[in-house]
Request: fold
Amino acid sequence: MSEVKIYSTPTCPWCIKAKEFMKENNVEFKDFDVSTDQKAAHEMMEKSGQSGVPVIDIDGTILVGYDVERIKKLLNIGN
Reply:
């Protein structure tokens, strides 16, 4: 099973969509609220070079934004 981390904020609509997608596809993930967790915010910026959310880490591959096709490919979820 893949290790998935989502760096997000509660008000980000694309973050919400990413987490809903994971739940709908029974993908376990860790959610980090970078609006309150400074350590996670720093980690996200180190990994992605970005301050925008969502940043999704799938087994060390970093995605900036909600790219559903790339997420499906990385998680080997249908077509």
